[in-house]
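Question (not urgent): is this output format expected?
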Amino acid sequence: MNVISTAIPDVKIIEPNVFGDERGFFCESFNARTFREKAGVDINFVQDNHSKSIKGVLRGLHYQIQHAQGKLVRTVVGEVYDVAVDIRRSSPTFGKHVGVLLSAENKRMLWVPVGFAHGFLVTSDHAEFLYKTTDYYAPTFERSLLWNDPALGIDWPLAGVGGTPQLKRADAEAPTLAMAEVFA
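Got this back:
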């Protein structure tokens, strides 16, 4: 496993070792011991999620203000532009983000720690997205951050998806960072 640092030290790009030949490939997508030793993160996942979306769908930016979730995310079909936004008010990187292309082809994963809002834009015809979480889904505490808040400065690759993403109503009406409930 290769761990790549990002502009926000707590967010990490993970590249698994992939072994392939004419028959296909094999990779170990998660190993707790290796993740602890190489990425410096000791976690216990309690839930796996799988979503499928069509091109231009933007899901996020989501987080849970209580029962906060760390997430290990990856794309197993297609391609997405994945974003993690630091919403820990006491952090020196508060309001900053990391964006990375995750695809079935590059097999990269992104570690999104507790205290971050997370979202992705589907850039291929469709995508299947998997994520492991460190706490259970708690809809009462689910929050969203406005995906296009100018204060965040996220350069979503919208040109490749027709210029306007498809959003659920709650995401389209989410508060800006200045108005959002965030972590201390």
